Task: inverse folding
C-alpha cells in the first residue's frame, strides 16, 4: 500500500498533537478549512473517522488514537534526522537549563566540556519556562522532575533536591551561633511561606514554625535565595549540593547535617530518538561524570 500524501499526514500529526484544528492550522501556515480537507482526505484513505468533533473540543477516535503515536514517532524521527544533519554541519549543541542549576553549577563548569570538545559550540538557554523537549529546538534539557519515566524522554539524575537551612556566618554569629535547630526561629527567614521550611522543621523535631508575622518575600529561585542568604538577609532553605563552593569558601554555613527529602531532583533529559546523536552522547557522558560527586553518599 502506498503512503498517503505527506501534507495529509502532517495535518493529522499536528491536529493529533494539539487536539485543535485551529492551532494545527496556525502551526502549519494553512487555513483551518485546508487542514479539515486534508484530514477528510486521510479519513477517506483509511476508511474510518480519525477525530471526534465535539462542541468546543476535538478528540481522537479509536482508530486515530492507534495511529497518532506511530505517525508522531515517524515525524520525530524525521525532525531529529534533519536536526542531527544540521548539527553535524554546524556542531552546535543547544541546552535549556533551569535557572538555579544553570547559575550554580553549569555556568562555572560548561567551559570544561568545551575544552574537552572544542569542535562543539554550545548554546545555553537559562529559563524556568517548561520546554517541550520532544518538539522544541533543544538537544538536551536540565530540569527539575519527579522520579520516574517520562514518555519519550531519557532522563538521568544529576542531583537530588534534598534541602537544609543555609545562612551567612555573620547572621549565625548575630545570635551567638546556631547550635540547635530551634535557634533558627530567632532569625529572619527568606521566603517564609516556602513549604520546605515546615517540612525541615518537622523533620528536625522543631514545633511552632509559622510564617505569620514574618516579612513576606517570594524569590522562588534557589540562586536568588542563596545570594540573599550570603548577604546576611536571612536563613534560606536550599539544596546544599548546589552551594558547595559557597559553603567551602565560608560564604554560607550549613549548621546541621539533616537533609529533608525533596519530591523532585535535577535531571538531564533528552528525547529517546536522540540517544545516539554523537554530541548528545558526548555531553551526557561528560555531565554524568562531572556531577558524580553530587550523587555520592556524603
Result:
Amino acid at each position: 500500500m502506498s503512503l498517503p500524501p505527506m501534507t495529509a499526514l502532517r495535518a493529522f500529526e499536528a491536529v493529533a498533537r494539539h487536539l485543535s484544528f485551529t492551532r494545527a492550522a496556525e502551526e502549519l501556515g494553512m487555513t483551518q478549512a485546508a487542514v479539515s480537507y486534508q484530514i477528510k482526505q486521510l479519513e477517506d484513505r483509511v476508511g474510518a473517522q480519525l477525530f471526534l468533533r465535539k462542541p468546543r473540543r476535538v478528540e481522537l477516535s479509536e482508530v486515530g488514537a492507534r495511529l497518532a503515536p506511530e505517525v508522531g514517532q515517524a515525524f520525530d524521527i524525521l525532525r531529529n534526522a534533519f536536526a542531527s544533519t544540521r548539527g553535524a554541519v554546524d556542531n552546535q549543541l543547544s541546552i535549556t537549563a533551569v535557572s538555579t542549576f544553570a547559575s550554580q553549577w553549569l555556568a562555572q563548569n560548561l567551559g570544561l566540556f568545551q575544552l574537552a570538545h572544542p569542535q562543539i559550540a554550545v548554546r545555553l538557554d537559562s529559563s524556568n519556562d517548561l520546554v517541550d523537549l520532544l518538539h522544541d529546538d533543544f538537544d538536551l534539557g536540565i530540569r527539575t522532575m519527579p522520579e520516574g519515566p517520562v514518555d519519550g524522554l531519557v532522563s538521568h539524575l544529576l542531583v537530588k533536591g534534598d534541602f537544609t537551612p543555609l545562612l551567612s556566618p555573620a547572621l549565625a554569629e548575630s545570635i551567638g551561633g546556631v547550635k540547635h535547630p530551634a535557634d533558627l526561629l530567632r532569625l529572619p527567614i527568606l521566603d517564609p511561606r516556602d513549604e520546605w521550611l515546615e517540612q525541615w522543621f518537622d523533620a528536625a523535631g522543631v514545633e511552632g514554625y509559622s510564617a505569620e508575622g514574618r516579612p513576606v518575600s517570594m524569590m522562588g529561585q534557589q540562586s536568588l535565595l542563596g545570594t540573599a542568604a550570603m548577604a546576611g538577609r536571612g536563613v534560606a532553605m536550599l539544596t546544599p549540593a548546589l552551594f558547595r563552593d559557597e559553603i567551602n569558601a565560608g560564604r554560607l554555613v550549613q549548621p546541621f547535617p539533616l537533609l529533608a527529602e525533596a519530591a523532585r531532583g535535577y535531571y538531564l533529559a533528552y528525547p529517546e530518538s536522540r540517544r545516539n546523536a554523537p554530541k548528545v552522547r558526548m555531553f551526557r557522558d561528560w555531565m554524568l561524570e562531572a556531577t558524580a560527586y553530587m550523587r555520592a553518599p556524603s
About this structure: The radius of gyration is 25 Å. Residues 91-159+264-295 form a domain with the D-Maltodextrin-Binding Protein; domain 2 fold (CATH 3.40.190.10).
